Every structure is written in structure tokens, then in C-alpha cells.
TrEMBL record, chain A:
Superkingdom in the source lineage: Bacteria
Cell compartments where the protein resides: Cell membrane
Chief location category: membrane
Protein keywords: Cell membrane, Membrane, Transmembrane, Transmembrane helix, Transport
Provenance organism: Streptomyces viridochromogenes
Name of the protein this chain belongs to: Peptide ABC transporter permease
Pfam families with a match to the protein in the record: BPD_transp_1 (PF00528), BPD_transp_1_N (PF19300)
Presence of the UniProt keyword Cell membrane in the record: yes
Length: 317, 264
């Protein structure tokens, strides 16, 4: 079997392997560490009673492999276990935090694509001139800045100096859509890094594509410039950008955790940070699996889409 | 591009100089004043426990810079042998064994991995450096391998082999040396990413004491006083912004130079 079908099969296989690996890694990092996990988890309150309770709750007396088998079987059924701290199912934690995080991520991606592609095309059209230099330097600079530093400066200027938007989302609960002003800073901060990387890739891809023989040929045939630019050059420029878009999911995830901590939004990032602080391992594991599998699936999807845009480029499989 | 290099050097120079020289200039721990005050002999006011913000700024850069440098160095120390061995070996299974697990590691979001470990252990500064290095190994090893594979297919390597040179001499003496330029260019980009992760982890409280003199921790802990005393947050935040921006501008200028010298 050769051709596109075998490529897709190989890519799907890699995705499956990555999913399995994420599950294994999450388990290994949190439970199979050397030493007594119960003692480590008791942390600041190492009284024997608490250690025994943790050992009981997590079945630490059984062999690690058996626990892994049980846990993965539970995952397959959609059962993520129960929290050590509250005894509630982990699923309810995820359900609680899901709304705000999904809203932030969806808004960011919805704004990311037009802004990033627009900036990239704008810079490419003015290659070497002032607009291009401005956009290129700005995207290069902002690209590297950690979200929390950028976010805290935005809060200082936009919320405290100018008073345009609230400085935190405290008091708005999970229904952020009803308070659009509270979404301005989080979305701006989440956009900062992905927009820059996307714009840079689209710019580079556009410049390459517009210089290529097929674009020159199309122009010679009298195809209008707009059509050459958006009908022929842009799809080719978008192929590497689509893959990058999925890679930015990694950043979006980091960004969501930071932004929720910074702006006090009760989403999945806050749930994760609270669970980390309380050493609530089942909740951390459940969230890590959800985040990890989302990343794997989105990367897989992006590679498939990128191949659709420019079938000849052998996307890494 | 020269202008971008100069801009990067200036922008990164200020925080770097503060980070490296600051701890020598800073005064000892003075008497604690009230928290979040302005003036009163403190040029930038006081922080959340009443320490002098300017002193904390002077002290707080070193940890960020040193942890980032250490993490970058460790990442290459592991990635270099991995990449070179898997590029030079003729045994396909060995290459698969070395590189495939890394593909899988790449799939895990970097901050998530750090937080997972932080949930179970309490890593210190060294632990944070190791974690950030671990997260960077897969990508670095791929780059080393790609560059080494290119160098290993050159006639010179063939000649060295036929002359019966040792594996060590071929791998380190020739292939390793060919990699220097790629690695120097990549190191700048990697350092940018590492700085980002180190600062973000410290902001989230991983690998640092809750009252550590660290720019990222300062931003986090002094946020509660943002209304009364913004300097305790704004100054360290600006320094982190300048540091990461400047390093990235420098890294890009380095890449550009390499691109131009290689493609005439």
C-alpha cells in the first residue's frame, strides 16, 4: 500500500502510539516515581493517618502494573477516578472548568487565524518596506515574551491606568460570555504568541509562493493579482502554517493555565493548578490525559489538513 | 540585519547586566518596612512583605538566567550524543530505539509535563532546570540528528572510515565539528524557549520558594498590591519582557547571518 492512504495510516498509527504514550507517561510521572508515593503526596502533613488514607484511596499497596491496567480501563470507559481531596469524581471537576477554557480557546483560535494570516499577507505584500519591517520586528519580539509578563503589563495599562476593562474576572463566575469586557485581556494575552508565529510563517510562505514559477506563469497568463495571491499563493503558504497552528495548541495550553491564574478565571487551568497545589493526583492525572490527548488529536488533524492543502509536501509521519 | 542585532543587544543587555551584576551591588537584607508602600527611602517602594523592591530587582535576575542557561546546556549534553549516535549508526533498530521515544515525548505539552512532576515532588531550582532540559531534549536531538545525518553522508566521512579512523574521531572530530554552526544558531532559539518556560514555571510557583528574589515570583506575589504599588510588578515584568525579546532578536540575527553566509 503506497500513496496517500498508507501515509494516513502511518499518521494515524503514530497518533495512537502518542495517545498511549501520553497515558503511560502521565501514570509514570505521577505514580511510579521511586520512593513511597503516599509519603511524597502527604507532603506538608506527614502524619501516619493521612499517609494511610492516601495509600488506601490510591490502592498503593497493589502493584503499579495492576493499578495502571485498572486506571486505563477506567479511562476507556470515561471514568477518570475520584479526587483525593474531596472524593468527587474527577469528571465533575473537568465539567466545571470546561466552559470558560473552551470559550477562551475558541475565541482565541477564531481571532488567531484572520489576524495571523492577515498580518502575514500584509507583511509579504510590502516585503522589505517599512510595514514589513515593523510587522516582522514586532512579531519577532512579542513571540518570545512569557504570557504572564505581557498580561500583567496589559492589566496595568488597560485596566488600572485607563480603566477600560476590569483587572480580573473575579465575581463573574463561569459565565464569561455575559461580561465581554472581562474577556479582552485574556484573549489578547492568549493571542500574543500564536499570532506572531503564524504571521511569520504565512509571510515567509507567501513570499516564497509569490516568487515561484507557477505564480509568475499565472501572472503572464493575465490572471488577476488578487487571484494569484489568494487563490494560488495563499493555500501553499498555509500548509506549513496549519501544522504550526496545531503546534501552537501546546502554547495555547500553557497560555490558558497562565492566563487563568493571572486573571482568576475558573477554567481547567485553575482546576489543574489547584490540584497541583493540593497534590490531588487523580485530578492532575485526569486533566493531564485530557490535555495531552487533545494535543495529540489536534496535531493529527492539522497534519491531515496540511496535506490536503499541499499534497506533495511529505508532512512528518 | 545589523540594526536588529544592535537592537537585540541593547534590549537584552539591560536585564542581563542587572541579572549578573545586580547581586553584587544589592545591599544586604535591610529592615522590613510596611508592605506595598511608596517612597520612604525606597526608590521603587516595598513589596508584599515590606522588602525594598529595587534590592529584589537586583537580586532576582540571576536565578532566571542561570536556570535557563543550565537547562539549555543539559538539554544539549543529552541531545548531542543521542543525535550523533543515531545519525551515524548503521543499525536501524538502534536509531528507532533512540529517536522514536522522543517523537512521543514531543506530543506532551511542555508546561503540563513540568506541572505533573511538580504535583508529586517539590523540585528546587536544579530540579526545574532538569525538567526544562528534559522537555527540550526531543526537539534538540532531532535537530542534532538531522544536521549530523547530513554531515555523515559527506565523502569526507567515507574517506575517514576507509582510512580506518576510529569511530570516536569520525563522530566527534569531524561530524561533531560540522555541527557547531547549526548548534550555535539553534542554541539562541532554544534559549528563548527555555527562558519562557523557566519564567512561566517560576510564575506558577514551580521550582522556587514562595518569597524568592526572582523576577517571575515578584510579578506573581506582588500582584495583590498592583493597585497601590504597581512598580513591584511592572519593573520585574518589563525586565522579563526585555530579556526574552532581546534574546530572541539576537537569536534571529544570528540565524539570519548564518542563512546569508550559507546561501550566497
Amino acid at each position: 500500500m503506497t500513496g496517500p492512504r498508507s501515509w494516513i495510516a502511518r499518521r494515524l498509527l503514530l497518533g495512537a502510539a502518542q495517545t498511549a504514550a501520553v497515558v503511560l507517561l502521565v501514570f509514570a510521572l505521577t505514580e511510579a516515581l521511586p520512593g513511597d508515593a503516599a509519603v511524597a503526596l502527604a507532603g506538608d502533613q506527614p502524619d501516619p493517618e493521612r499517609i494511610a488514607a492516601i495509600r488506601e484511596a490510591m490502592d498503593l499497596d497493589r502493584p503499579a502494573l495492576e493499578r495502571l491496567a485498572d486506571w486505563t480501563a477506567g479511562l476507556a470507559r470515561g471514568d477518570l477516578g475520584t479526587s483525593l481531596a474531596s472524593g468527587r469524581p474527577v469528571g465533575t471537576y473537568i465539567a466545571d472548568g470546561f466552559g470558560p477554557t473552551l470559550l477562551l480557546a475558541a475565541l482565541t483560535v477564531a481571532l488567531l487565524v484572520p489576524t495571523g494570516v492577515g498580518l502575514g499577507v500584509l507583511a509579504a505584500r510590502h516585503e522589505g518596506r517599512f510595514t514589513d519591517r515593523l510587522v516582522s520586528s514586532l512579531t519577532l519580539g512579542v513571540y518570545a515574551v512569557p504570557e504572564f509578563a505581557f498580561g500583567v503589563l496589559l492589566v496595568t495599562v488597560l485596566a488600572l491606568r485607563l480603566g477600560w476593562v476590569p483587572p480580573t474576572a473575579v465575581g463573574y463566575g463561569t459565565d464569561l460570555l455575559a461580561h465581554p469586557a472581562a474577556l479582552v485581556i485574556p484573549v489578547l494575552v492568549l493571542l500574543s504568541r500564536p499570532v506572531c508565529s503564524l504571521a511569520r510563517l504565512v509571510r515567509a510562505g507567501m513570499i516564497d509562493a509569490l516568487d515561484s514559477p507557477y505564480a509568475a506563469h499565472a501572472r503572464r497568463y493575465g490572471v488577476p493579482g488578487v487571484r494569484v495571491r489568494y487563490g494560488h499563493a495563499l493555500p501553499n503558504a498555509l500548509a506549513p502554517a496549519t501544522q504550526q497552528l496545531a503546534r501552537t495548541v501546546d502554547w495555547l495550553l500553557c497560555g490558558v493555565i497562565v492566563v487563568e491564574a493571572l486573571y482568576v478565571i475558573p477554567g481547567l487551568g485553575t482546576v489543574l493548578m489547584n490540584a497541583v497545589a493540593e497534590r490531588d493526583v487523580p485530578v492532575v492525572q485526569g486533566l493531564a490525559v485530557v490535555f495531552g490527548v487533545t494535543t495529540v488529536v489536534l496535531n493529527l488533524g492539522a497534519d491531515l489538513v496540511a496535506r490536503r492543502f499541499a499534497p506533495r509536501t511529505e508532512a512528518a509521519a | 540585519m545589523k540594526s536588529r542585532f544592535a537592537l537585540g543587544a541593547v534590549v537584552a543587555g539591560v536585564p542581563l547586566a542587572l541579572a549578573l551584576v545586580g547581586p553584587w551591588v544589592a545591599g544586604g537584607p535591610g529592615p522590613r518596612a510596611a508592605s506595598f508602600t511608596l517612597g520612604g527611602g525606597h526608590p521603587l517602594g516595598t513589596d508584599f512583605v515590606g522588602r525594598d523592591v529595587w534590592d529584589q530587582v537586583l537580586l532576582g535576575g540571576r536565578s532566571v538566567v542561570l536556570v535557563a542557561l543550565a537547562a539549555t546546556a543539559v538539554a544539549y549534553l543529552v541531545a548531542f550524543p543521542l543525535g550523533v549516535v543515531s545519525a551515524l549508526t548503521h543499525r536501524a533498530w538502534l536509531e528507532e530505539l533512540l529517536m522514536r521515544p522522543l517523537d512521543v515525548l514531543l506530543a506532551v505539552p511542555s508546561l503540563l509535563m513540568i506541572l505533573l512532576v511538580a504535583a508529586v515532588l517539590t523540585p528546587g531550582a536544579a530540579g526545574l532546570a532538569l525538567l526544562v532540559a528534559l522537555v527540550n531534549i526531543p526537539d534538540a536531538a532531532r535537530i542534532v540528528r538531522a544536521a549530523a545525518a547530513e554531515a555523515a553522508s559527506r565523502p569526507a566521512v567515507e574517506a575517514l572510515r576507509m582510512q580506518g579512523e576510529t569511530w570516536w574521531r569520525t563522530a566527534v572530530g569531524y561530524v561533531g565539528r560540522c555541527l557547531t554552526r547549526t548548534l550555535v544558531a539553534d542554541a539562541g532559539v532554544r534559549l528563548t524557549g527555555v527562558l519562557y518556560l523557566v519564567a512561566t514555571a517560576a510564575f506558577l510557583g514551580v521550582g522556587v520558594e514562595p518569597d524568592a528574589a526572582d523576577w517571575a515570583v515578584m510579578v506573581d506575589r506582588n500582584r495583590t498590591g498592583l493597585f497601590v504599588q504597581p512598580w513591584a510588578v511592572v519593573v520585574p515584568a518589563l525586565l522579563i519582557v526585555a530579556l526574552t525579546m532581546g534574546v530572541n532578536l539576537l537569536a534571529d540575527a544570528g540565524l539570519e547571518k548564518r542563512r546569508r553566509t550559507w546561501t550566497p
